[in-house]
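Please check both lines for our workbook:

___
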Amino acid sequence: MRRCLAVGALLVMVSACSSGSSSSDSTPDTRAPVSTLYAPAEGGTLKWKSCSGDSLDPLQCARLSVPFDYNNPSKGSFSLKLVKHPAKIRTKRVGSMLVNPGGPGFGGTDLPENAESYFSTTLIDTFDIIGWDPRGTGESTPAVDCVDNYDKYFTDDPTPETEAEHQVLIDVSKAFNAECEKRSGEILPYISTNATARDMDTIRAALGEEKITFFGFSYGSELGATWATMFPSTVRAAVLDGATDPTSNYMQGGLDQAKGFETEFTKFLAQCSANKKCPFYNNGDAEGAFDKLIKELDERPLVVSKSRASVNQAIAYTAVSQAMYSSTMWPELEVALRDAQEGDGAGLMSLFDSYYRRTPDGKYGNELEAFNAIMCLDDPGPKTVEETDSYIPKFLEVAPRLGISFTGGYTCVFWPAKKDQRIEITGKGAGPIMVVGTTGDAATPLASSQKMASTLEDGRLIVVSEDRHTGYGANDCVVSAVDKYLITTKVSFAEKAC
């Protein structure tokens, strides 16, 4: 699933999908300007082999070693897992296209493994689609590993009414960090976006290509923009879909995202109130019914299983946010809210588990751990609990219903690894870069994508009219425009509506 992780109270404070600074935010932007370009990597090889061992399987796998610290390679190395979906029509092959699904923290090998679900036939025919699990994620090794039981750390009351309840949130953040340091302390300083951008250039060199194409979704847009700024001479073409605002910082990014989720949830409730067939119709007052339900879940959480946390406000807010990534999930949320109203929290728990990618056997990937680790390196935000809490009124102002769920987490306040100063994104010298924004995107609101396009030296924007996160694949208009650009590197518009 292409997305930015969101609902920061359940993760850190706000989502990593947006970053940087804003003139309206008191937290200063201290991104490092790019005064000198990075020298492109040279050499390297990749030994591809069938991923499954079946000669008829087109997917090929490889491993690539990259240093923890490019300035001090003796400190250790990561082994990156790569998967290639070779161009189906070799005579039409354009080249290699690196792809990233977002997060941060999500592995990228799923994209070539399921290329037909993400990309058009045209791109599948003409590009070697190459995804990799970025350092610290997925099946690259070593990977960030912190905790096994998510319920213990991410279901605490986001609306503390006493100092004791507030202290629980602080203690849980500290406990999570202690486990991260215990299990993964060696690699925590080395998994920043800057470092992964350098890995991208190392991959390019190992592929033997002077210039390479990139397609990034959600947080992948920030990664791609960072890479294009650091290594502009190696950029053949780049698409940034569901783009973040490269000029907003930790707190402003969270405020923007809270507003985005609130806007989509307001649409959801209004649509339900206007439709008597909506399971959560409530005589045309879905809004009032939700407000009542969320209060009741705070007072009387619903027991779904003796082995799981009770469905409280934290779980309900996560479930709502999960459904806001696409209007295709709204029917599921309608039923889940109705069922919770009737005393059954299973539907909300299911959406909660989907958000955290919990498998039927109760296991999780490492996406959440990697998310926190990367975000706290890139832009840790406020340095104290008090400063973090000072933003609560702002979140409630921009998002009266959901804003509280973006507050109350302190992971980055106590994070053990030192910040890796992100660069100032410019895209200077990289040529035209295509940015895709969606009108109803909760995780990366359209304004964020517009800002990315205007910040890049030669950003070209496509605006897709849909209620979903990321726009590629939403209609023929955006698919055609993106595909044409990726194949030819030519684009004839500054902004296009789809």
Observations:
- The first helix runs from residue 110 to 113.
